[in-house]
Amino acid sequence: MKHNVLIYAFLGMTFISATAQVASHAPTVAAKAAPAPVAGQPSDVMQVSDKPVAKVNGVILTDRDLLREMFTIFPYAQQHNGFPKGQEASIRQGALEMIIFEELIYQDAVRRKVTVPPQKLKEAEAEFQRQFGSPDKYQEYLKVEMQGNPALVRQKIQRSLMIEQVLKTDVETKSAVSAAEVKDYYDQHPQRFRVPESFSIQTISLLPPRDQDPAKLTDQQKKDIRRRADEALRQAKSTKNYQDFGLLAEKISEDDFRVNMGDHKVVKGDELPPDAVKVLRNMKPGTVSDLIQVENAYTIMRLNDRSLTHKMNFEQVKAPLKQELQKEKYEKLRSSLAKQLRAKAKVEVG
Fold this sequence. Notes:
single chain; alpha+beta; Triger factor/SurA peptide-binding fold; Chitinase A, domain 3; four-stranded antiparallel β-sheet; three-stranded antiparallel β-sheet
């Protein structure tokens, strides 16, 4: 989740107006984010002027804050020289909502007198500095973005940690899901964990000419296709294993799976023609079917494995299901918190 561990890459974002004063409302980013290039380097991504984009109880959030959050949402903007045109509006709106939400959380933290232990602040500051890779790069950042004042960095990090603490208390901790809750969900939604019948197959197909209407095949052409199909069946029946059948498929099959040894991997039963499913159900793994005719095309199937319809057992799904339920609960609690804080606040956009 976004605020679990903070690296504060937002403090190292590149902007064209590098000498402009940095606003004090920059959002945090997730743990594995690396710092962006130090301000002052060339960039054509977006001009910023520190103009207001929103007010939260009188506190101004700027286009610099907004752009930092947009980079958090779409970190590839630097490489792509901007944001995707079709997504830029939604990225901007999402970023705007996030910086407003984080400011509301921060103000709530101040009202609640949330404090950050000095040791935790010191460790977080050291962690942030390490993201620059060298002391020189960090000093360049301080000079350009922070007027050479490390205290400004410390203030921003403290702000981020206060936001993190409120979210942990009011959202993350409350979003925990017990093993019993996971099991109850599993028991109450059996269809979600139903795995349909499936087959692992290889095929060899003999087809009419691709450039000719199948309905206009001559009798001689139909006989020729059948002759080739009978010969293919004779050779397929003599194969001993997956490899033999696959090599034959690559050599003589005319369907698109020939390039992969005729292997369809695992196919659900309801994705196959009913006639093929009927044949496969009467086969044993490792055996080869007779010819299956569909109009003037012929297919030979090798059954490698079959899985009957079944319900995944609880141990298979327990871990990912718990993660899914916790994420869903987290988002609901976070959304509810945002609505509660916004309802009591004066938020002006634009």
